[in-house]
Amino acid sequence: MKKKITFQKENKNFYILVNDLFLKIEDNLNLYDNEIDLDYQIQDYVMTITFNKKSLIIINKQESLQQIWLATKKNGYHFNYKNNQWICNRSGENFWKIFENACSVQSNKILIFSKK
Protein backbone atom coordinates (compact mmCIF):
# COMPACT_ATOMS: atom_id res chain seq x y z
CA MET A 1 0.00 0.00 0.00
CA LYS A 2 2.80 2.42 0.81
CA LYS A 3 4.42 1.92 -2.60
CA LYS A 4 1.18 2.83 -4.34
CA ILE A 5 0.96 6.10 -2.43
CA THR A 6 4.59 6.89 -3.25
CA PHE A 7 3.99 6.10 -6.91
CA GLN A 8 0.92 8.34 -6.99
CA LYS A 9 2.90 11.17 -5.39
CA GLU A 10 5.74 10.73 -7.89
CA ASN A 11 3.19 10.67 -10.70
CA LYS A 12 1.58 13.86 -9.42
CA ASN A 13 4.98 15.58 -9.24
CA PHE A 14 5.78 14.41 -12.76
CA TYR A 15 2.55 15.91 -14.10
CA ILE A 16 3.27 19.19 -12.32
CA LEU A 17 6.72 19.30 -13.95
CA VAL A 18 5.32 18.43 -17.38
CA ASN A 19 2.56 21.04 -17.10
CA ASP A 20 5.10 23.65 -16.08
CA LEU A 21 7.35 22.79 -19.02
CA PHE A 22 4.49 22.86 -21.53
CA LEU A 23 3.31 26.25 -20.23
CA LYS A 24 6.83 27.68 -20.55
CA ILE A 25 7.10 26.31 -24.09
CA GLU A 26 3.76 27.89 -25.02
CA ASP A 27 4.78 31.24 -23.52
CA ASN A 28 8.02 31.22 -25.47
CA LEU A 29 6.41 30.21 -28.76
CA ASN A 30 3.80 32.94 -28.33
CA LEU A 31 6.58 35.53 -28.15
CA TYR A 32 7.41 34.75 -31.80
CA ASP A 33 3.82 34.43 -33.01
CA ASN A 34 4.02 37.49 -35.29
CA GLU A 35 7.61 36.91 -36.38
CA ILE A 36 7.69 33.34 -37.66
CA ASP A 37 5.26 30.98 -39.31
CA LEU A 38 4.42 28.43 -36.64
CA ASP A 39 1.43 26.72 -35.17
CA TYR A 40 1.18 24.40 -32.20
CA GLN A 41 -1.39 22.23 -30.58
CA ILE A 42 -1.49 20.14 -27.43
CA GLN A 43 -3.56 17.04 -27.03
CA ASP A 44 -3.17 14.43 -24.29
CA TYR A 45 0.28 15.70 -23.29
CA VAL A 46 1.56 15.66 -26.85
CA MET A 47 2.63 19.04 -28.22
CA THR A 48 3.00 19.28 -31.97
CA ILE A 49 4.75 22.38 -33.30
CA THR A 50 4.46 22.98 -37.04
CA PHE A 51 6.84 25.38 -38.75
CA ASN A 52 6.86 26.62 -42.33
CA LYS A 53 7.11 23.92 -44.98
CA LYS A 54 5.40 21.50 -42.54
CA SER A 55 8.55 20.95 -40.47
CA LEU A 56 7.52 19.40 -37.13
CA ILE A 57 8.76 19.21 -33.57
CA ILE A 58 6.89 16.87 -31.25
CA ILE A 59 7.18 16.90 -27.46
CA ASN A 60 5.46 14.33 -25.31
CA LYS A 61 5.58 12.79 -21.88
CA GLN A 62 6.54 9.20 -21.19
CA GLU A 63 4.81 8.65 -17.89
CA SER A 64 6.10 5.15 -17.18
CA LEU A 65 9.71 6.32 -17.67
CA GLN A 66 9.11 9.74 -16.06
CA GLN A 67 10.65 11.34 -19.17
CA ILE A 68 9.98 14.03 -21.72
CA TRP A 69 10.65 13.05 -25.33
CA LEU A 70 11.51 15.57 -28.01
CA ALA A 71 11.42 14.67 -31.70
CA THR A 72 12.99 17.13 -34.13
CA LYS A 73 13.78 17.12 -37.82
CA LYS A 74 17.29 15.88 -37.07
CA ASN A 75 17.03 13.67 -34.00
CA GLY A 76 15.07 12.32 -31.05
CA TYR A 77 15.89 13.08 -27.41
CA HIS A 78 14.83 11.69 -24.03
CA PHE A 79 15.00 13.91 -20.95
CA ASN A 80 15.05 13.05 -17.26
CA TYR A 81 14.38 15.62 -14.58
CA LYS A 82 17.58 16.17 -12.57
CA ASN A 83 18.72 19.08 -10.43
CA ASN A 84 15.66 21.18 -11.30
CA GLN A 85 16.02 20.84 -15.06
CA TRP A 86 15.24 18.44 -17.89
CA ILE A 87 18.51 16.81 -19.00
CA CYS A 88 19.06 14.71 -22.14
CA ASN A 89 20.00 11.18 -21.12
CA ARG A 90 22.45 10.83 -24.05
CA SER A 91 24.22 14.18 -24.35
CA GLY A 92 23.71 15.63 -20.87
CA GLU A 93 22.44 18.87 -22.47
CA ASN A 94 19.60 20.90 -21.02
CA PHE A 95 16.18 20.65 -22.71
CA TRP A 96 16.06 24.36 -23.47
CA LYS A 97 19.39 24.40 -25.30
CA ILE A 98 18.34 21.52 -27.56
CA PHE A 99 14.81 22.83 -28.05
CA GLU A 100 15.94 26.37 -28.78
CA ASN A 101 18.45 25.11 -31.35
CA ALA A 102 15.89 22.83 -33.01
CA CYS A 103 13.31 25.63 -33.24
CA SER A 104 15.92 27.98 -34.68
CA VAL A 105 16.96 25.45 -37.33
CA GLN A 106 13.42 24.51 -38.25
CA SER A 107 12.13 28.09 -38.39
CA ASN A 108 15.23 29.47 -40.16
CA LYS A 109 15.38 32.23 -37.55
CA ILE A 110 17.47 32.55 -34.39
CA LEU A 111 15.12 32.08 -31.46
CA ILE A 112 16.03 32.79 -27.85
CA PHE A 113 13.74 31.44 -25.18
CA SER A 114 13.30 32.52 -21.60
CA LYS A 115 13.57 29.56 -19.25
CA LYS A 116 11.79 31.29 -16.35
UniProtKB/TrEMBL annotation:
In the record, biological process GO terms are: iron-sulfur cluster assembly
Quote one Gene Ontology molecular function term. ferric iron binding
* PROSITE patterns linked: FRATAXIN_1 (PS01344), FRATAXIN_2 (PS50810)
Tell me the InterPro entries matching this sequence.
Answer: CyaY (IPR047584), Frataxin/CyaY (IPR002908), Frataxin/CyaY_sf (IPR036524), Frataxin_CS (IPR020895)
Q: Does the keyword Metal-binding apply?
A: yes
GO CC term, one of those recorded? cytosol
Keyword Metal-binding set for record: yes
**Entry-linked CDD domains:** Frataxin (cd00503)
The UniProt entry, under SUPFAM superfamilies, shows: Frataxin/Nqo15-like
Which superkingdom heads the taxonomic lineage of this protein's source? Bacteria
Keywords for the protein's UniProt record, in alphabetical order: Iron, Metal-binding
Q: PANTHER family, from UniProt?
A: FRATAXIN (PTHR16821), FRATAXIN, MITOCHONDRIAL (PTHR16821:SF2)
Q: What does this protein do?
A: Involved in iron-sulfur (Fe-S) cluster assembly. May act as a regulator of Fe-S biogenesis.
Family (UniProt): Belongs to the frataxin family.
Q: What is this protein called?
A: Iron-sulfur cluster assembly protein CyaY
Organism for this UniProt entry? Buchnera aphidicola
The taxonomic lineage of its organism, from the top, reads: Bacteria, Pseudomonadati, Pseudomonadota, Gammaproteobacteria, Enterobacterales
